[in-house]
Design a protein that fits this description.
- About 40% of the residues lie in helices and about 20% in strands.
- It has helices at about 1-25, 70-100, 105-120, 125-185, 195-210, 275-310, 330-335, 430-435, 580-585, 600-640, 645-675; strands at about 35-45, 45-50, 50-55, 60-65, 215-220, 225-230, 235, 240, 245-250, 255-260, 265-270, 340, 350-355, 370-375, 380-385, 390-395, 400-405, 410-415, 420-425, 450-455, 465, 470, 495-500, 510-515, 525-530, 535, 550-555, 565-570.
- A hairpin with a 2-residue loop joins strand 17 (about 400-405) and strand 18.
- The radius of gyration is 42 Å and the shape is elongated.
- The two termini are about 20 Å apart.
């Protein structure tokens, strides 16, 4: 009887374990990372008799965790990809909506501004029209500054997310290290009895860590795992965990760089961070936000420089030359702000550099690294986008010199430079933030041209003169006004008279002279005049000396000997709209990218570039989600809890439990029957 009772008891206990395991599966059906468990039964060793072996029941040899390491790893990898794309797509969508929105973008402000200039050109003396120009110009400034501020806010948001992501990653690394220790110390591990719940928890922590950054997981002794970055840099070894960190970027203090501290040593791992949320944030910053900063600044410089150049050669309502329309793009403080010294430069760190915009039409959008080597005077200029050396050479002694690039010059003003010193060169990044309106009064808008030409009353020929083209009225070498414009409200060396005389290789010459009594020759005397062609008066080359006066006229037709034309200051030219029309024409003129794009086209290119990246990230995100769903589904097919299946097992184990109980009941009945025979 005892053998029958023992067999029934093993059945009851084993089926009870199976029922408990099944119940545990059911209650954890929605627990993240839970792996289904099942009971492994084994027949107990039987009793050998002459008639054969009589069984002694059943025992539970293992509670097996149903998990496939390959599928678990696949889920981790797909979580890394999806985490990166979700973050990248979210940030790109925010930037795309900002740049492309009608109320938040730049296009409407630019179009309205140049439309107001066109309207003002139709009535240049109208103060209300002039006030509208100033109002729309301020709107352009506001939009540039607002976009720049939004960029800064998004940059700070990215930095905050990086810092929070690092904190989350450190918490997970510590948890994984603690779980490693708990698993290795788990009772029964040497006999193969795995701590299933701890393994599930560790796999879930690893999956969450993979959502933050790309990792590699390697199994080691004692069922522990080592965790490293994709390049092999250790994050968790046994029960020891490294710590992520962030700090101001040594090259660009407005950005953060990632660090890893392990064993008291801190390393810069910025280049090793890839995949996951942290990798997505880093990609967005490098591939979208920084280029957008540079491109928006380049457009701001283009608008300011073009408007300033044209406005300065006009004449306002009070007869004075026009001044700056927007802030000077080459203000000394602004020039120096375009250079940032690397925080790791050697002492004395007194190198002084500045970046001057020389031609906004050729200015590229981007950033460069100027690094020194050798004795500190050898330099290389490296394009950060391509990593290529675009300029190199050696500084003179003393070091004051210029490094010339298309559209800008790097001016070395002085100081000491050591081997390994680096400087970040960013000609355009802060330009949108620093743009501002310089014209305050309607009367200061220079819509007229300061010069005009008239035909002599006694002329008998068919010669004609145009109304001239204004050039730069400042010396490109000194920056001071040319002699003819140094007296306000008049042409200091004028009026100028163009006189024709017979002679020369073409049969006729002309000479430009100043006012009497000196009537001194201005420029070259007795210049040949060719009928049937366009003849120019004065040079457009600032290096031409006295033949460069800051303006140029064209002569056509067949003048007669003794004919004259007069060039004078445009006094009382309040209805002159020549400069207003030229200012308005800048709205459609090709003034960017080597004079291949207008301002609106340049901005449209920025919007399109971000839009393309946004759409591509959306496609990548959808693909990543599909892969993650597939790998998760495959894992769930092995490790997930199927409630219908578990319900069937409950019935199965319940029936077996009841049957085992019945075996004991039968044994009890037999024992009672046996007792009755002795009564």
């Amino acid at each position: 009887m005892a053998g029958l009772i023992g067999i029934g008891l093993t059945g009851i206990l084993s089926q009870q374990s199976a029922l408990n395991t099944t119940a545990n599966n059911i209650t954890n059906a929605n627990t993240p990372g839970y792996s289904r468990q099942e009971v492994v039964f084994e027949t107990q060793q039987g009793q050998r008799t002459g008639a054969g072996t009589i069984g002694k029941g059943v025992s539970v040899v293992d509670i097996r965790r149903l998990a496939n390491e390959y599928l678990v790893q696949q889920v981790r990898e797909d979580s890394t990809l999806t985490g990166e794309q979700q973050t990248l797509n979210s940030e790109l969508n925010r930037l795309d909506n900002l740049l492309g929105g009608e109320s938040t973008g730049l296009n409407n402000a630019l179009n309205n501004f140049f439309a107001s200039l066109q309207n003002a050109a139709e009535d240049p003396a109208s103060l209300p029209q002039r006030q509208l120009v100033l109002s729309e110009a301020q709107q352009v400034v506001n939009r540039f500054q607002a976009l720049s501020q939004e960029f800064i806010q998004q940059r700070e948001s990215v930095k905050t997310q990086m810092q929070q992501g690092v904190k989350d990653a450190n918490t997970l690394l510590k948890s994984i290290a603690d779980l490693n220790l708990a698993i290795s110390e788990s009772p029964g591990l040497a006999q193969g009895r795995m701590p299933n719940e701890l393994l599930d928890q560790r796999d879930e922590k690893l999956r969450q860590l993979a959502e933050l950054v790309n990792i590699r997981v390697t199994e080691t002794e004692g069922s522990q795992v080592n965790v490293s970055l994709s390049n092999g840099l250790s994050l968790v070894v046994g029960n020891n965990a490294a710590q992520f960190g962030t700090r101001d970027n040594a090259e660009d203090p407005t950005r953060l760089e990632f660090t890893l501290t392990n064993g008291g040593r801190t390393l810069n791992i910025d280049e090793q961070i890839s995949g996951g949320k942290l990798g997505g944030l880093r990609r967005f910053d490098n591939e979208a936000l920084k280029p957008a900063f540079d491109e928006l600044g380049r457009i701001a410089i283009g608008v300011a420089a073009s408007m300033n150049d044209q406005h300065e050669i006009g004449m306002d309502l009070e007869g004075d030359l026009g001044g700056l329309f927007f802030n000077d793009v080459n203000d000394l403080a602004v020039q120096r702000s375009r250079v940032v010294a690397n925080a790791n430069n050697q002492l004395p760190r007194d190198g002084q550099l500045a970046v001057e915009i020389t031609d906004s039409t050729k200015l590229p959008a981007g950033s460069w690294t100027l690094q020194f080597s050798g004795d500190g005077r050898n330099f290389e200029l490296i394009d950060k986008a391509s990593g290529k050396i675009v300029n190199q050479g050696r500084l003179p002694d003393p070091v004051q010199s210029e490094i010339t690039m298309p559209g800008f010059n790097i001016r070395v003003e002085g100081g000491t430079f050591n081997a390994g010193d680096k400087y970040l060169i960013q000609p355009s990044r802060n330009a949108a933030e620093s743009i501002g309106l310089q014209v305050n009064r309607e009367e200061d808008l220079a819509f007229a041209s300061p010069i005009r030409a008239t035909t002599g009353d006694q002329n008998v020929g068919t010669g004609k003169i145009d109304q001239g083209t204004m050039l730069n009225v400042r010396s490109p070498f000194t920056g001071s006004l040319l002699p003819g414009f140094q007296t306000a409200g008049e042409l200091a060396n004028g009026p100028l008279t163009i006189s024709f005389a017979a002679g020369g290789p073409t049969g006729m010459t002309f000479t430009v002279t100043g006012p009497p009594p000196a009537s001194a020759t201005v420029g070259t005397a007795n210049q040949p005049y060719e009928a049937g062609k366009i003849n120019t008066v004065f040079s457009n080359d600032p290096a031409a000396g006295a033949d460069y006066q800051g303006f140029q006229f064209k002569l056509t037709g067949q003048p007669a000997t003794g004919d004259t034309f007069e060039i004078a200051y445009n006094s009382n030219g309040v209805s002159d709209n020549r400069n207003a029309e030229l200012l308005a024409a800048l709205g459609t003129a090709n003034t960017l990218n080597g004079k291949s794009q207008s301002f609106t086209e340049g901005y449209a290119g920025l919007v399109e570039d971000i839009g393309v990246k946004t759409r591509q990230s959306q496609f990548d995100l959808e693909a990543g989600k599909t892969l993650l769903e597939q790998s998760t589904g495959q894992r769930e097919s092995v490790s997930g809890v199927n409630l219908d299946e578990e319900a069937g097992r409950l019935i199965q184990y319940q029936a077996a439990y009841n049957a085992s109980a019945q075996v004991i009941s039968v044994a009890q009945d037999l024992f009672n029957t046996l007792l009755q025979t002795f009564r």
